[in-house]
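Data card: per-record layout.
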Amino acid sequence: MSKTKKFIFTILHIVAWVIFIGLSIEAGGLIVNFIFSLVNPEFVGNLYQKLDLSKMYEQSKLVFFSTYFLLLSTSILKAVLFYIVIMLLIKLDLSKPFNSFVTKKILQISYYTFTIGILSQIASQLVNNFAHYGYEIDKLIPFWADSQAFILMAAVIYIIAQIFKSGVELQNENDLTI
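The structure for this 178-residue chain is written out next.
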């Protein structure tokens, strides 16, 4: 492997770790806030990232908990997605990239990405419907703003996974003929 490829691969590895740590902090903050809000409902006004859902909590606890569940789910799935990316980068051998482990991890990445996109789209539509009933949703919109990008990215990653799957099959056939 050339020095340039190795350098770029190392930078990508570091970036994946930074994103994973950031997403884990966000998911952890949301989980801790959720637990505090269950124990002490007055804490709902001081949620993670200055997310004040106290009016929503006062209007309807069902709407608050369903919105928070969707918020937590997407945050945790994003952290898990980058954990899988890191595991892929740790075990990826660039001299022999076509193997079943890499194919499996790329497929997992596409499934998680698609799930995040669909869940974010559902959450976005649901929260927009809540706005018609007078709920304040302005601070929630950034959490689900990129749902369509996740769905498109999932499609691209799935295609790449299928290419890797075909590559593994070709490599196995070549290994058997020799």
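Known properties of this structure: The longest helix spans residues 3-39. The chain has five helices and no strands.

See the next section for split statistics.
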